[in-house]
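Lecture notes, part 5. Sequence design as translation. It can be helpful to think of inverse folding as translation between two languages: the language of shapes and the language of residues. The source text, in structure tokens, appears below.
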């Protein structure tokens, strides 16, 4: 049997796409391996969001090339495929920069992989056209055993692309315009996942809350409506979605955060900056106060919600005052979790053309200050759950024998001792300690006295 090794960079969309590529290749007789050296086919599923991410691909390709040469010396053939957003953005340039690459395939074309691999026997190829047909129509359903091996929490792509054109972002160019998948297909996929034991679905899309597509009743369904329907799928206990834009939080979705128990109290809602001037230059189309008001509305319905965001520091023209506005917004909101980055100019995006770029040292200093505050907030949030009893979805064996590990509703990893529970169960666990990355809890056996 031939073996394929897939390495994914970047966001959850790529994790999902990597699984779909493995599914396509399974029908061609490839089994997945975690060891690159034994792979007949190496796929790098790349990310183009920041410069560093793209450069990493080229250095990794250098290592893959060496491995290909070593295998060749022992008479073994290795194909190298570059997929994902760098493939989409750079196309032929990748073949030029790295002669060992056989195939370059964009995120909309990976259903063509079997054909591309066959053609690559004769020539090196690039496939980055935006096809008219939907790739999802051409992707095979994964085998039940495959779904089971991937765990009880699964990603489900419901939307791709972005029409927002934030001035710093390459996504609208690499992933194209917003397209929502049909409701019926999403339901089919959800049911198949649930049937194989999946308990938690994370709906994903580049701008997932822009979801809109005609439902079985003929009306256009928003994300809120879709979530309500998915909550009815037998076996599905938890729903999440990522990543979203503040402007697309409509009433139905906000209400779902209050009235839909399966929708977990966790929201990743990137704000990027707290300065109105910078938000405007970023083309975010909302102010810092509008974001505060939106969060206040959501918290009114779901007071416990854990909030998460992305931040960019050092956007062109960002002054000390602009940065202080971001720090103030962070202090006002209180985030449970966050991702923060130095602004990285992306060729072809409007912000890269702005003359007033912020010096690297200033970006670094601001990032350190912001991350310090965000980390303090994350720790405070985690410590705040000590003493609470939280429902934990069991995902895998814990780090030590006898331990089992899962996630809290707030997406915190939780470990506790148990020899009685199975993966996929949801267990009420009392949190006793917060480590730097995980919570530690104890299962209260029915009848046990709980220490005060
Ligand atoms: N520079 C830095 N960070 C960026 N992001 C997107 N584009 C850039 C860029 N050019 C960040 C944003 C986005 C996250 C996925 O990546 O914060 O929300
Ligand atoms: Fe990029 Fe997100 Fe803005 Fe779309 S909404 S352009 S994906 S940052």
């Amino acid at each position: 049997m031939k073996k394929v090794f897939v390495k994914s960079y970047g966001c959850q969309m790529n994790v999902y796409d990597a699984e779909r590529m493995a599914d396509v290749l399974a029908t061609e007789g490839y089994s997945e391996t975690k060891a690159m050296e034994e792979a007949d086919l190496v796929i790098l599923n790349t990310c183009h969001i920041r410069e560093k991410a793209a450069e990493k691909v080229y250095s990794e390709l250098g290592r893959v090339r060496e491995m290909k040469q070593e295998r060749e010396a022992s008479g073994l053939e290795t194909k190298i495929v570059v997929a994902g957003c760098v493939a989409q953005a750079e196309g032929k340039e990748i073949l030029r920069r790295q002669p060992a690459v056989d195939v370059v395939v964009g995120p909309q074309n990976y259903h063509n992989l079997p054909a591309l691999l066959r053609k690559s026997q004769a020539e090196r190829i690039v496939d980055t056209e935006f096809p008219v047909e939907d790739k999802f129509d051409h992707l095979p359903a994964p085998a039940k055993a495959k779904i089971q091996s991937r765990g009880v929490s699964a990603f489900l792509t419901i939307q791709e692309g972005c029409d927002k054109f934030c001035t710093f972002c390459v996504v609208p160019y690499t992933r194209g315009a917003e397209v929502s998948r049909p409701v019926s297909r999403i339901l089919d996929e959800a049911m198949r996942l649930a049937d194989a034991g999946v308990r938690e679905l994370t709906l994903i899309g580049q701008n997932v809350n822009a979801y809109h597509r005609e439902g079985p009743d003929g009306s256009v369904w928003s994300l809120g409506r879709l979530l309500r329907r998915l909550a009815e799928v037998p076996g599905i206990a938890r729903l999440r979605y990522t990543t979203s834009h503040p402007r697309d939080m409509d009433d139905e979705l906000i209400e779902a955060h209050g009235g839909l128990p399966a929708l977990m109290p966790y929201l990743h809602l990137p704000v990027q900056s707290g300065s109105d001037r910078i938000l405007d230059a970023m083309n975010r189309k909302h102010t810092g106060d509008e974001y505060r008001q939106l969060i206040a509305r959501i918290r009114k319905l779901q007071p416990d919600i854990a909030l998460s965001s992305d931040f960019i520091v050092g956007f062109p023209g960002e002054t000390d005052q602009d940065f202080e506005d971001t720090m103030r917004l962070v202090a006002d909101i209180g985030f449970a979790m966050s991702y923060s980055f130095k602004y990285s100019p992306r060729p072809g995006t409007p912000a890269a053309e702005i003359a007033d770029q912020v010096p690297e040292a200033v970006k670094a200093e601001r990032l350190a200050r912001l991350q310090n505050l965000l980390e303090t907030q994350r720790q405070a949030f985690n410590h705040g759950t000590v003493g609470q009893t939280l429902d934990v979805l069991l995902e895998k064996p814990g780090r030590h024998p006898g331990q089992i590990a899962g996630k809290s509703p707030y997406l915190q990893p939780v470990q506790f001792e148990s020899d009685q529970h199975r993966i996929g169960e949801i267990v009420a666990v009392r949190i006793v300690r917060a480590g730097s990355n995980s919570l530690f809890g104890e299962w209260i056996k029915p009848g046990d006295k709980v220490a005060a």
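The translated text above is only one of many valid answers, since several sequences can fold into similar shapes. Residues 49-50, 168-169, 270, 272, 310, 312, 341, 343-344, 346 surround 5'-deoxyadenosine (ligand 1) (CB under 6 Å).
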